[in-house]
Amino acid sequence: MELSELGMDAWLAPSISELAALDLCAARVTAVDRGRYLVRNEAGEVPAELTGKLLHLAESSADLPCVGDWVGVRLRDGGTQASIHTVLPRRSFLRRKAAGRDVEFQMIAANIDAAFIVMSCHFDFNLPRLERYLVMAHDGHIEPVVLLTKTDLIGPEALEQLIGQIRRVGVEARIVCVSNVTGSGVEQVRELMTPGKTYCLLGSSGVGKTTLINRLLGDGDLETREVSHTGEGRHTTTRRHLIVLAHGALLIDMPGMRELGLLGAGEGIEDSFADIAALARQCRFPDCTHGSEPGCAVRAAIDRNEVSEAHLRNYLKLRKESEFHELSLTERRNKDRAFGRFMHNYKKRKGNRD
Model's pTM, two decimal places? Predict the structure, then answer.
C-alpha cells in the first residue's frame, strides 16, 4: 500500500524530507490502546512504542501520537516492531478537554478530512449535543456531516420536523438520513467518502456507528451487541482505530464519548454559531452580552423569531465553558513555569554552595 493510499498528501512533503535526513520513515498511527500503538506504512502494520526522548520532550499528552497522526519511526527486529521518534504536524484534529477535573487538552484523532456526526432519530436526538460536536469539528478544521440514523423508527413527517429543528439552529452542514435496518442512505454515505481521504464517526454509544461501519465494510467485521430495552444498540468499540475501506477511503471508529468538554475552542464556537456571531457584530456595544442591553441585534432577532432562545443559551454556555477552561489552563501553566524557574534557581544556588 502506498503512503498516498493511507492519506499522505503534499502538505506533509517537507516533513517527509526531514525524516529521511534523520534515517526515519513515515508511518500512520492506526490504533492507540492504553499507551500501546499500531502504525502502518507501505510494508504493513506493526506494533510500536514511544522513545524515551519523545516522552521527555512532550509538554502534555496532547503532544503524543493519537489515531490518524503521521509519525517518524525506525523499524527494528526485522521490521516487526517500530519505535516512534517524532509526531509530524497535524493538518486537522479532534480534541476536547480531558475527562474529569484535569484542565488539559486530550487529542482524540488527527488528520481528518470530514467528521460524520451520528445522531439517532429516536432517543438520542439532542440539539445541544449536536452543536457541541459541531464546535469540536470546526475547532479542528474538519468538515462536519450530520448523519441521522434509525430513520426506520419514525415516519417521513417526523423526520422532516427533526431536520427542520437542525436547520433552525443555523446548522448548514450536509444532512444524510440513514437506516441500518433497511440500508437506506448507506450508499449515500459511501459516495461521500473519497479514496485516500480520512473520515471519522462521532456520536453517543448505541446510535448505530458500528453497524454502519459493518455495512460500509460489507463483511460484518466489527462486533455489535444486542439492542437494549430502549431500542438503542449497545456498541462494543473500546478503542480508536483507523480502518481502510474496500473502495480506498479511511475511517476512524471510536467509542462514544460521555464527556465533551470544550477548551480553547473560541474559533470553533464562532464558526458553529455563525448566525449569532454575524448578528453580534451588529450590536450597538462591542462587548454586548445579548442580555438586556439596548441595541442588541441578537435579542432583536429572537424577538423576530429568527433565532431561538435555546440556540443563544447554548452558544453562551459553550463560550463561557471554553473561556473558563482556557483561563484555568493558562493559570496552571504559568504556575508550572514559575515552579520550574524556582527549582532551576534552587539547584543552581545549591550547586554553588556545594
Answer: 0.80
